[in-house]
Each structure stands twice: as structure tokens, then as C-alpha cells.
Amino acid sequence: MKVIVLGSSHGGYEAVRQILMDAPDTEIQWYEKGDFISFLSCGMQLYLEGVVKHVNDVSYAKPDQARKDGVDVFVKQEITAINPADHTVHVVNHNDGSERDESYDKLIMSPGAVPADLPVDGEGLDNIYKMRGRDWAIKLKEKTVDPSVKDVVVIGSGYIGIEAAEVFAKAGMHVSIVEFNERLLGLYLDQEFTDTLTQVMKAHNVDFYGSQAVSAYKGENGKVTAAVTSKGVELPADLVVEAAGIRPNTKWLDGVVELDDHGLVKVNDANQTSEPDIYAVGDATLVPFAPTGGKSRIALATNARRQGRNAAMNALGQKHAMVPVSGSSALSVFDYKFASTGLKEGTAGKFGVKTMSTVVKDTFRPPFVPDAAGNAEVLFKLTYDPESHVVLGGQVMSTQDATQNMNVISLAIQAKMTVEDLAYADFFFQPGFDRPWNVVNVAAQQALEDLKK
């Protein structure tokens, strides 16, 4: 059997690995239109801050190793068209300009997404950058040490925007964040958390401008000099980093496989498209959402990787359904580390779900352990169904790393555990690590009290 895999990021990479594990004799052709495979955009901050020294190290795989494993890797070769009836793809080789058709038995697509374009005046000025992919990473790295860059404007305050803001603030620059929503990180955290993080950003020379969009860019001599917001605020800018969302890279698939009204590829639980021998994974698809039982768009590497494995197993003839996910994620903002999973009060409305939440504050270790020895306050929020008491989500934040607790909540959501199940769940205790009652226990026990009111 011959399997063609389109795309080399998280989903495509995992599809290739699964096929090699389950059916190593399969003929695998792996296509990447860029000149580098499996770059991790989620690892870009580590490179920009110098934790990872070489940009080529921010990757899963190298072509030579994949070829040793028996995979035919085609770099700078783009699949531009698909003919499902003939089971062929059209390939443009950007190395020499040649074109050809290749046949397949199964096709696994990870077309990904591209940064959203902002239709504002001045978009074509120099020094307006994106933050996605290896090429942009190299350009952004140069700007972190550019002495002419003193003011940076970041458009968008999701994870990518926050990472960009922190990178340039640490590089000694003044940063302004422009966000359409009222709060930064509003899709990931509720207000108890974002209020603190907004203050933290301010203390590190990062100003936040919420409830407004960018309306225009001003420039001189072809370079951007300012960003103007929809409220008329003019922000000086030697560099603009646009991180205002993504759009699926699927326009070229219209008429090939069925797309929804947002341009996402429709897939079933096997990650199979409307064409039985074509599978799709990653940011251009929806994933089953455990808290609601429906589907949601959650563009995370973890989801793409699971989809890649799932698609490969089904392409090989195995029966395997995509495991529902909860959108678990984590990030740091200077000294603070936070994580969230499932539903939040700020997002439950769009799913039409009624929720109740309990917020608790605890310490990372017993109170007798001084902060200097690794103690700190922990803020924890548990979200659940007020009638069934089923756990629906959670959020945690501390200057210590309490983020792994969200893996517990994610598993609780998947298993449809209740607040009662978590209240006295068994967790270890050792003063050098945590409290006698894990913060998950503390939150669930308080939730039981809140439910009595």
C-alpha cells in the first residue's frame, strides 16, 4: 500500500510515525512545501529567548533520519491539487520547477493554518511580522537584537501574542498589546487570573489595550512607525507582530473534500473526510470536545498529534475513534505559570452549557515551608455542572509550577467524574512537593460546600 502524507508539522509527523510502527513495509511519501520539516512553532519562544540556540533544533525530525526509516521525504515539493477519482495528487517541485502526478492508496492531509490577514491600511509596510513557522522565527530573532527597535506592538493576546510580548519585553523593548476582546488570554483563563497577569505584564513594560482592534498602520520611508487602534489610540511601533488568529489553509481543497462554512475540513471520528481514502488532521479540522460531547476548533499541537495517529491507524484498516479532548494547555507569563482545560465561565456561553465554578487559594507546599524554599500561593478554579456535578473544566496559576493538576482535571472530564469523585481522590503528599490535601481535593471539597448553598 502507498500512503501519501501532506504536511510535516505535528499531525503529519505523527501519521508517519504511526505507519512506521504498525506497517513499516508501507510505501510512505511525505511532502513539505517548505525547506524544513517538522518545525515546532510552539517552541519558537524558546529559540527567540536563546534557550534553544539553533533554529533547526526546534523540530521533531530530520529528512535524513526519516529516509533511513524508509520514508520518501520530499522537501520544497508542494501538493497543489488532488484528484480523488483517480487517487492522484499533483506535485510542484520548487527545487527545479518541474511538475508531476503521484498516485496514492490513502492520503493523509495536514494542511494546517496560516496567520489571519488583517485588512487594514498600511499592512504592506516593512517591519510588520507574523509569528508562525521557521522563516518568521529567523526574522523575529534578528529583531530581538536590533538596536533600532524600541517600541513593539503585538496584535492579539492569545498564546502566540503573549509569547511575542514576553520575548520583546525581555529583550528590553516597550510592548503594547492590542486585543479585540476585553481581556488578554480571555479564551484560556477567566478574569480572576487575567487581572493578575495584566498587572504582571504592566510591571514588565507591557501595556494592554483591550476591547479594540488595529484600524491602520502609519509609516515613513516604507517602514511602520505606529499602529492606530479602533479607539483612535496611536501606538509608536518600530515593529508590529500580528498574532490575531489563524485561518485554515484549505481554499485549494474546495470541491475536493467537503468543507464547513468556516473553511474547515469535515471529518468523522476516524479523521476521514467526505472522500473515504482521504484523511485530514490538525488546525484545519474540528476535534471532539469532551466537556460537551460535541466538536470544537482547538488549534493545539496535542490535538493534531492525536489526530495524526488516529488517521494513520484508520488508513491502515484499523478501527479507531478519535478520543475526545478538553483543550488542555499551559503557558508562562514571566514568573507566573498557568494552565487550563475544558470549559471556562468566559467560554461556556458559546457552547450553551450551564456551569458553576469554585475558586480556592492555597499554598503550593505546607505553610511552614518559606517561599524562598519553593512555596507560593496557588489560585485554582474548578468548573462543573451544577445539576449533575460532572467536572467540566479547570484553571490553575502560581509562580510555582502547579500546571500538572490540569492533566488531572482533563482526565476527570474525559472519564465524566463528578465533584464528589475528586473531593477525596487519592493523591500523594510529601512536604517537599505539595500539601496534605492536593489543591484538586481542596477545590472539590469547597465545591461540595458551594453546592449546598
Automatic annotation (TrEMBL):
SUPFAM superfamilies hit by this protein: FAD/NAD(P)-binding domain, FAD/NAD-linked reductases, dimerisation (C-terminal) domain
Q: Name one GO molecular function term.
A: oxidoreductase activity
What cofactor does this chain's UniProt record say it requires?
FAD
Gene3D superfamilies with a match to the protein in the record: 3.30.390.30, FAD/NAD(P)-binding domain
Instruction: State the UniProt keywords alphabetically.
Output: FAD, Flavoprotein, Oxidation, Oxidoreductase, Plasmid, Redox-active center
The family database entries (Pfam families) matched by this protein are listed as: Pyr_redox_2, Pyr_redox_dim
Enumerate the spans annotated as Pyridine nucleotide-disulphide oxidoreductase dimerisation domain. 332-434
Highest taxon in the source lineage? Bacteria
Name all FAD/NAD(P)-binding domain ranges. 1-308
Q: Which family does it belong to?
A: Belongs to the class-III pyridine nucleotide-disulfide oxidoreductase family.
UniProt name for this protein: FAD-dependent oxidoreductase
Q: Give the source species.
A: Nicoliella spurrieriana
The organism's lineage is:
Bacteria, Bacillati, Bacillota, Bacilli, Lactobacillales
